[in-house]
Design goal:
Elements (H helix, E strand, L loop, with lengths): L11 H10 L2 H13 L3 H29 L3 H11 L8 H32 L8 H12 L2 H20 L3 H29 L2 H9 L8 H14 L6 H6 L8 H29 L10 H12 L3 H35 L3 H22 L8 H6 L3 H27 L2 H8 L3 H31 L1
The protein binds 4-fluoro-L-phenylalanine and sodium ion (NA).
Length: about 450
């Protein structure tokens, strides 16, 4: 069971964690949720929760992994024993496994759209196409449950194979090249958006903070997104933390992850909204926002087919380095709880998540608005699953914050954090009081809205 081997390179944790953090959450989910929730107000809540709640929890979650040097469930069990606290804290493992399972189910479907667009780009099918043609082609993709299921299946199999065969190591070198390339290509798209779109409108949309404009559910979505984007509250970061070398400063690493992640989201948001406003598209278009606006830019820019093809491959790389971090802790959980072998555990998780993903697939066609699921739950199955993750992730994060803040001793924390007393005091205040209060506040605000 143990995980005493530690990653040899000091930078490996950072790379793996950035690989987990940067993904569809930044490129697809952040812009679409910001667009649906009026831009600036959403971003303000999102940014505040990243810095006041997300970073402290990121430090706490890594700390729990590194202090226990075990996978999440066994790690929590070990820590509850050594600290004489309740085994109820193991629920962090259950909650995390449930969130990971739900997230992977839709993550894989959306990553499937990127597979489709990789093909569309390289075959040049959209070269020179106008906005209407591109929107129609996206609608046609969504209208096909068969095609969506095919791509979803391909993506989830690829992710499962990587985790099952343990080829993380090869991925490490891949990430070192892919992550910077993705950032560069995003900057190219942003440059195109500045030159040909409406950058001014994008800036004022994203950075005009009218907090009153945020709906109650918008608060929950903004906070949920800050956990989602940093991969928090599910054991993913804890599982990686278990392999992290003891010499590295947790504080510095956590800031680095959050800064890189936020930078990618901001550049993606600015690029996408410049194009959206330039072309007169609807900012509140929903989950299709990225998949309509970016292909439009690639359709018109010089060498767009090539740039677009490479872009979508990099998106897939970012998505897969995130999806493997969703599978990893659940697989470890199944191995520990139910004595499965690793391949069985991965197979079980992936198959169940795949089946669950079919609910997302049909949300865009057979069960779209106006059909049975909507009538029963007032939203699509996909929206419902997203809502659950917006609740589960902060809840898991809250438990992690409370445990790290209240159960761990001063010397244990100092050994992990390697910072000054001042930083320690700030951190502990944030995880003990601020993070729990913020999560409770957002929950209490938004719950009446969800019921009603
Ligand atoms: N952080 C990833 C993203 O922004 O795309 C999504 C994610 C990965 C969430 C891993 C949670 C997780 F455990
Ligand atoms: Na992210």
């Amino acid at each position: 069971m143990s995980t005493h081997n530690v990653w040899t390179h000091k930078g490996t944790f950072l790379l793996a964690a950035v690989g987990s953090a940067v993904g569809l959450g930044n490129l697809w989910r952040f812009p679409y949720l910001a667009g649906e929730n009026g831009g600036g107000a959403f971003i303000l809540v999102y940014a505040l929760t990243i810095f006041a709640v997300g970073i402290p929890i990121l430090i706490g979650e890594t700390m729990l992994g590194r202090a226990s040097r075990r996978s999440p469930i066994m790690g929590m069990r070990h820590l509850t024993r050594t600290h004489n606290t309740s085994r109820a804290w193991e629920s962090i493992g259950w909650l995390g496994a449930a969130s990971a399972f739900l997230i992977l189910s839709f993550y894989s479907v959306i990553a499937g759209w990127a597979i489709h667009y990789t093909g569309q780009m390289f075959t040049g099918s959209l070269v020179g196409a106008d906005a209407d043609t591109i929107a129609a082609s996206f609608d046609a993709l969504l209208a096909s449950p068969g095609l969506l299921t095919l791509y979803h299946t391909l993506f989830i199999i690829a992710s499962g194979l990587i985790v099952g065969m343990g080829i993380h190591r090869g991925l490490e070198n891949g990430l070192r090249i892919m992550m910077p390339s993705l950032f560069v290509i995003l900057l190219v798209v942003l440059g195109y958006g500045i030159a040909n779109g409406d950058f001014g409108a994008a800036v004022s949309f994203l950075f005009t903070f009218d907090i009153g404009a945020l709906s109650l559910e918008g608060w929950l979505q903004a906070m949920g997104q800050s956990f989602f984007t940093l991969s928090l509250g599910m054991g993913a970061i804890m599982a990686y933390g278990a392999y992290m070398s003891s010499e590295v400063s947790l504080t510095r690493t956590a800031f680095a992850i959050a800064i890189v992640d936020t930078a990618v989201a901001m550049v993606a948001g600015l690029a996408i909204f410049s194009l959206v406003f330039g072309a007169g598209l609807d900012a509140a278009a929903g989950p299709g926002l990225m998949f309509v606006s970016l292909p439009l830019a690639f359709a018109e820019m010089p060498f767009g087919a090539l740039v677009g093809g490479v872009f979508f491959i990099l998106v897939l790389g970012a998505a897969i380095s995130s999806s493997i971090s969703l599978i990893e802790p659940v697989a470890a959980f199944l191995v520990e709880r139910f004595d499965m072998t690793r391949p069985q555990a991965v197979f079980g998780m992936v198959t169940a998540s795949w089946a669950m993903g079919l609910l997302t697939v049909v949300s865009f066609n057979i069960w779209a608005e106006g059909t049975i699921f909507h009538a029963l739950f007032g939203r699509s199955a996909f929206d419902f699953i997203e809502l659950l993750t917006n609740i589960f992730m902060p809840l898991g994060g809250l438990l992690i914050a409370l445990f790290a803040g209240w159960a761990l001793t001063h010397s244990e924390v100092m050994k992990e954090m390697r910072t000054s007393e001042t930083w320690f005091t700030i951190w502990r205040f944030l995880v003990r009081f601020v993070a729990p209060a913020a999560v409770a506040f957002v929950f209490l605000r938004s719950i009446p809205q969800i019921e009603g």
